[in-house]
Amino acid sequence: MEATLEASPAGDSPAIVADPVVDAIDRLKEKFPEAVTDDPREGYNGLMVNASQLPAVARTLKDELGFDYLSSLTGVDQIEDGKLEAVYHTYSIEKGGGSVTLHVQVDRDNPVIPSLMPIWPGADFQEREAFDMYGIHFEGHPDLRRILTWDGFNGHPLRKDWQEPFYEDAQKPFGSRWPEGNAVHRAEENNPYGKNVQYPAGWVPTGEEYDVETDMYSILKGNDGHTVDRATHMKTDKLTVNIGPQHPSTHGVFRMVVTLDGETILDLKPVMGYLHRNHEKIGERNTFLGNIPYTDRLDYLSSMGNNHGYVLAIEDLMDLDVPERAEWIRILTVELTRICNHLWALGFLLNDLGALQTPMLYFYIERELILDFFETLSGARMMCNYMRFGGVAYDLPDDVRGQPTMAFLNELVNERLPAALDQADRLMTYNEIVRARSIGVGFLSRQDAIAYSMAGPILRASGVNYDVRRAEPYSYYDQLDFDVPVFYNGDIYDRYRVRIEEMKQSIRIIKQVLPHLEATKGAPIISGKPQYAIRMPRPGEAYGRVENPKGELGYYVTTKRRSSNPERYHVRATSFINLTALGKMCIGHKIADVVAILGSIDIVLGEVDR
Amino acid sequence: MTTPATGASADVAVPEELQNNVWITNIAKLLDPAYNWARKNSVWPMVFGLACCAIEMICTASSRYDLARFGMEVFRATPRQSDLMIVSGTVTKKMVPTIVRLYNQMPEPRYVMAMGACASGGGPFKEGYTVVDGIDKFLPVDVYVPGCPPTPQALINGLIALQEKIDQQSLATVPWYRKDDPTAGMVEIPVLGPDLVDVRQIDIIKAEAKKAAQLAEVETAVTEPEAAS
User: Fold this and answer.
1) What's the confidence (pLDDT) of residue B152?
2) Which domains are seen in chain A, by residue range?
3) A407, CA 20 to 30 Å: which among A362, A375, B105, B166?
4) Residues of A in contact with B201 (CB under 8 A)
């Protein structure tokens, strides 16, 4: 794939085409002079679109201008203007480069925006999330239900005027609860119920409000109570089965509701929110720095990658430069995280395919080595909390597991990891059972993969050559030599192979990084003085995105001038959006395949539910 | 209660040459160590992962940390066969009815371990609107393991603490053989309304609603004359 085409400065070679983003924005404004204008706010560089014209604008953007990938969709509460806003980030798969960002503002009292489901089915869960969190009504959405909270939940929690039961203050840091070391109060003591709950004033339980899932069951296809009438005249009932939220194969607290005809799946609805930890609400109250440890806990298998996306977004807002050594260390840690994550994902995928635990235990041996490195580097095995704005927190340690660090890393990438991957290849890739269970199962076509906003290995297993490290290079990825593995069958087997190949490419990248680490030894690892209380120098928005092991991870942050905390903090969670196509991939397969298909998506519930 | 099971009782004289071979004790002292020894070395946890801590729990069970040394490697996928529920991660309001139901399905004797900061008290997510501030608001917890997430070593330390706790129990006093077993009943399953409703607190909710209604009445009484004037 071509690298990004930047806007060419005047006098440059005429062969270079204009930036596709600028071009697309111009043509949109030309075609919809009434409905599309530049965003007038300082620091915002998207387009302001009239709500009624949004579907037409989106269709033009997708079909005529080639911005066919809806990366992120989110709501924002502009309480001071009395508006609710929806923000859409669209990218071009073919041309790469930056995003065309659409902002749609509607009245706070009557927030209705046309749904983009007919154009991008990938908007499904994201629109439901915006409805759940902000109460924005997406007209035309076929199944607009709450997704992270439950039906019947009181209010829309991300609205700025909605306060949670343990509310203390609008911004952190709060005043001390123990000013002189004496316990003054705990949050529980201020609450009449002694726990984290609140009810609408005057609410008395009647016992009827608990029947909360009728809507979900009624929308399942084939769940109409009729029997299947076959040519054999044998009548069978259709069956609705709940898998999860507590099930050994759902990779956490995830639930699927399936309708079955015999063993064949007629319809599948994912149900989530069982690990909704209010990441975004907490993030809007935290200081910028205080959010970094929370990002660790999103996709808890690849915390370094999560850190990276967030610091990129904030560095964009602060106009910070990162010293060379820090960039190399970041790439080292992020690529090690990718290997770590894929080892885990493949171990679990094989577990789901029936190779119970043995391959998993093989893969963990090398994973533990990487975790030991992270522990000496950052102090924690999993939740590294390692990157800072403008650099990283600590320099490389002197020793890891009793070996000098560089010797350890060299041995790891030159001997241990390649040997482990070869072994996995030998044992698994051509294994008869693995192939029988995975080839042709869970198919997703190239068009669907793009339309459903899939990302990462799933997108690339469906023949789409798209990797953020290539399409919109960040850090030093444009200086590194690596391939983007692409496979074309779009099934479980290809997703497995994409991950194996990606690990090999990560090893290749790390091999190129190690000499730079030797060369920059002793160089600064953070620009300027480490700051704790950051005041944002400019208002505006930023969208930082990285190619995380699971796919594109984006952070959308808006802030005000001199603010110490984000105004809006949204995570484009890869696992969450990748689940949008789960139903489509499963329909027609047997129920045993559902587990394998879910394993091939590689979800982490911390990121799905946030 | 662990009693050194060897040695002679004062009442019975044992010939010197048999001192090492004869063991005189009473039935309770004999049974308790045997009963507890068997139980503490075959604690079967439930396959039950909630969040980040579950990853460390799986690591603990894998070969490097080797939970099999404690007889705990048999993770059961059903509560009916489990002795220990390791609440490994953040408990949310949407999930807690399921957790309580699973606990109710476990047979006695059953133990609960709160692994990590979130399960112990809400942790970093405590102020969140759908987070339960500690599983001990609903279930009786035997061991708390601090950490975010606890390392495998910390989890093993917690499991050893649980073994010590099991070792201190006596057949004569354990609740699950008593007729008036205080722990035998089902924990009432909370339900989801406008917020999580702990069924045991219905009276408080009603009282609060009454208070709110009275407050509203006072307010209207204050505002109405103003509006009239």
Assistant:
1) 92
2) 20-139 (3.30.460.80), 279-609 (1.10.645.10)
3) A362
4) 193
